[in-house]
Amino acid sequence: MSGSHVEAGAEVTSPPAQVTSASAAFFDRFVAPMESRMIRSIWRITRNSQDAEDAMQNALIAIWRQRELIASHSTPQALLLRICLDAACDVVRRRSRERRGRLSTEASRDLPDSTRTPLDAIADRELVEKIVLELHRLPRQQAVCMAMKVFEGLPYEEIASALSCSAATVRKHVERARAKLKVVLANHDLGQPQRR
Amino acid sequence: MDTQEDRRVDERLCLLLDDNVPEKVESRLRSQFASLRDGAFQDASVQPRTSGRTRRSLLIRLTVSSIAVAVVAVVWSVVLQPSRGLAQVANAVLQKRWVHIETTISEGPVIDAWWSPSSGIAASRSKDFTRFENLRNQVYELYKPDEDRLYRSPVVGTSESSRSASHFESLRMLFQSDRVSEKQFDEVFRCGPSIETTKILEQQVEEVESAGRKWLDYHLKVRTPDELGVVDILFHVDAESKLPAVVRFEGQLNGKRVKRESTFDYPEQGPVDIYALGVPRTATFIDRVPSEDLKRIADILRSDRIRMDDYRMVFVNPSEIGEEWWWRNSFPQVFYRKGDRFRRDFIAKTLPEGMEPKEPDANVDRREWWINRAKQFEYFPHYVQAGPVYYLCSLKQQEASKEAEHVEIGSVESHKRDMGEPWPIDYAMRPEFVCRVLMGLGNEDQEAKLVQNPTDGPAGCIQIDIHRTTKRGRMNEKGIGVTDLQRFWLDPRQDYLVKRWDMVMIDAVGEESIHLSHIVEESAQSPKGVWYAIKVRRKNDIIQKDGKRYDDFYVMYVDFNVNLPDSLFAPPKVGTKSQRLAWD
Predict the structure, then answer these.
(1) B47 and A36 in contact by Cβ < 8 A?
(2) Which of A88, B35, B49, B309 has its C-alpha lying 20 to 30 A from B579's C-alpha?
(3) Other beta carbons within 10 Å of B59
(4) Are strands B497-506 and B213-223 parallel, antiparallel or unpaired?
């Protein structure tokens, strides 16, 4: 349903010159409170500025198109996050093909942490890249369910409602995704010296 | 059910894939939100888009549409304060390069205002201040001549464009016919203290000719909700373009005739920055735009305030004084929330003799005990709030001989207060708000400081100090006003829930004294995962007759698993009788 991204190359018409009260009300009630979470959910998947911008634009267009559904949905917040994550997954999948599977991530704003050494930081960075790569390789449903459950902390029922499927299906997707990511973590840990 | 191992994996993944979005990326993504906010995607959404240059161009143009609306609101508030909204200016104004308005208030102060829909600038100037707002980057600059300081602050809360969107629609419609509709007018004007008393008493539209041009003069006689009473309003509008040339308000205030007149012109040039408005370049510049860390925390707090679950709550306010009789020490109030609607019920009357509570067992479950206690009383709504509009009820005076009967609502007052987000009038007594109060980040009169590793306060918390930099409105001996410092300790482990909030006065030699502290002693997570306060200790500086200070408590027994019918949040009606509450 979120395949609402549009292709490059066409002209854009002038925007409307006025604002409708309905749009403002929709935005204020449903989207504005979620702004930060939506941005962060997209960033977690894309970790690249250009991809994040593209994903956000696609997500916003999808949100606008589906505003009535969102407004009347039982879990509008979950639905908004689902749309964002769908858009993020679409973009990274497309870009991954373009980059032939190579990753192009950018550093986050690392907060200083006196307990970590520079070597730790490098190891973590490598692990992050591996995790992101694996996340991008996951089937979209698995990636979306995983992100909604693990990163957004949504209950299975809410995710199911946003994805129009059963909670059992969501649980299955999360389990499968988690198992794959667990392998990446385990492989990484095997290659690391043990710390006490 | 997820296993312990699953949870460990999840936690590790969350740590690795952190959500610290680079500042530049976040800023660009937020600008995309601004476009959606303005409804501009309404058309864009059905159009194919392109990337790169064309898309940026779209975003810029989309932003411009929001500026136009926002500026309308700014100008409106300048021209028609305290009411907001103006006979907007039709679409023609949006095509103007600059609009300049000069407002005179009863031969007194003159306020100059400019806006440029195309460049996204709104500015105003009077003898007391100069303000320049660049709506593209959501900041404004404010110069105070008496301080010779120039402040740069964020536009916080709901953007002007969002806030004014509904006004815009109403205003735009106002002059579209030969008669101003009462409904439209009410939409525009219902921003005063009361929303129900604005009324058009008379209106007349006449066509006049002057200097070879045709004009429409809209004459209105309006009863306003404030002390101005009946006001005569004239909108002198160009018949062809529907652009206003003069807007005049005349009324009586304290027996004197007062007049507010605004004249409009549409120049090609306007101020490009605040210095073009005469602000000296030597003015001390003070940047109040919060750091990214502070901004992020504020966003999290706001988000959790908004997404809090629906609930019913029994609230009691016991004190250390008489703690040994806690069961007689307080009366239960009942609070409700459903989305952006709120309600608070007061006990309507005391119980007859013989219904006083008996001393409970020492190990009684106080939550259960208080909920059962609340069921014994009849209640009436103290207020019901839907969005920014709230209805305050008071009881009808009752004759002594009829005390045993039901009491009824004697009057209902309606008010409006728009905080840019759902904001109940009794926020400090609510479980999701008392631990997330507005800190006033970005206010030009407040300086914010984040302390990552505070030396005192609750363990594991970060500290935010908000110093007031002005003495205006400072708390007086009667305890009225604002304290010099507000200090917050926020717990990152609980989504930055404010564990302690101190209101502090600072004397001439810099000595601090705490006026009031709110300390969250117990907290929990709602089904949606929002942290909220259960028990708040309030330490005050009031010395009792015995020479001691005593704390009081806000104890909140919140229940999420309740049925809250919409009828509970309907505007209360005069004559409604007090009743026992419907408990599940």
Answers:
(1) no
(2) B309
(3) 20
(4) unpaired
